[in-house]
Amino acid sequence: MSSEPQSVTGKGVLRLGNAKINLEVTMTTKPVRCVSMLPLFQQLTNMIVQEGVEQIEATGEKISCKKGCGACCRQLVPIAEPEAYQLQALVEAMPEPRRTEIKKRFSDGREKLIEAGVLEKVETPSATNKEEAIALGLKYFHTGVPCPFLEEESCSIHQDRPLACREYLVVSSPEHCANPTRETVHCITIPAHVSSVVKQLSHSRPVPWLPLISALDFSEKHTDQSPTRPGPEWFQEVLQQLKNHTSETRQ
Fold this sequence. Notes:
Helices cover 44% and strands 13% of the residues.
């Protein structure tokens, strides 16, 4: 008797508004937690972002983000709980002394945010509207705390970077990113945000996201209690939620 296949490959077309994205993905068929699906969700994010890049370039504009321009790596990066567990595993797998150095960057960053009176506000945000959320983000940025993975103004974990980082690209001049305002920094519009959907899939907190700087602290204090589901079920849920979010945005 042959055993059940451990993975499956699917092809199809994902339609998000006017965007049409050709998909070909391979995923496990076994029941897994959401964190195990992150590589696939990263792949999906890359596809959607590429569609947004092509749309903006068709208008004559160009993406100004490039290696060595790390101003955005001092911004508040909201991640989903599964991403916190993924980042913890990534750090723990690092050889010494790099592992200890990265952990120290997390710790030092949190201490600086505590001193600035910002950490508690970003860990338990109470912003009720977009304006308040933007103000909180700017306050975080002006503390100057860099992402612990920022090295030589570039991302040292670029292949494993969070979903929100993948979705953030600008067409405005890089000089404005060092002192961002709503008027001077122009982010590209992408067909849908996978990061928003994944945040809602599996979370234990009232707020479905946490700042990247708190990833290790959160993972040390909590164990992943998210449900296990077959890979195709996770993926279909994400695709359906993306379509729903796109429809709500267009209304």
